[in-house]
Amino acid sequence: MAYQRTDEYDPVVTERIAAHVKEILGLLGEDPEREGLLKTPERVAKSLQFLTKGYQQDGKYIVKQAVFEEKYRQMVLVKDIDLYSTCEHHLLPFIGKCHVAYIPDGKITGLSKIARVVETYARRLQVQERLTVQIRDCIQEALHPLGVAVVIEARHTCMQIRGVEKDNAITTTSAFSGSFLSSARTRNEFLNLIRH
Known about the structure:
The chain is α+β, with helices and mostly antiparallel strands. Helices cover about 40% and strands about 25% of the residues. The protein is built from eight helices and seven strands, in the order αααββββαβαβαβαα. The chain has a five-stranded mixed sheet with strand order 5-2-3-6-7, sandwiched between helices. The protein has a two-stranded antiparallel ribbon with strand order 1-4. Helix 4 packs antiparallel against helix 5 (about 130-145). The longest helix has 17 residues, at about 10-25. It is elongated and about 60 Å long. The protein starts with 10 loop residues before the first helix and ends with a helix. The mean pLDDT is about 95.
């Protein structure tokens, strides 16, 4: 699958979503015909398509576009990858950082591909737990490294602006495979590196 340009939207999908958004505005007690809301349904429709563009992308395909033979067998870590996703329970954003490491077994990938994998799975309706595992599994299946480690730290606006209203709560999830599971030393090295 190719990357979807962010300025191209399916006009039929946009129109159908916009019609529903217009109805929702009315159900909330607003006048969808007032000046400030006239273009809101279309804007929301395009925004939702952008926030879920990961459904049109394939993480393994992305990684495999830049695979190189390399004898390096030490940890490769890309940390503090900005992460923006949408909670599938409330359709509200969760925002944070993702740290991804892998230990190559004869093959490496371009560093930007790691960030693109994070973006691909984040731009779907998600729960943080599943997102963490999807990133790990994608890199494991695409590169067949000796191990993969993923940690996500995020703030969930569904906890901040509604419900429990705890503004400073941070959710941390992790997923490990291979060497990161079998070797406490390797896992601890990764955890120490992402703390600094």
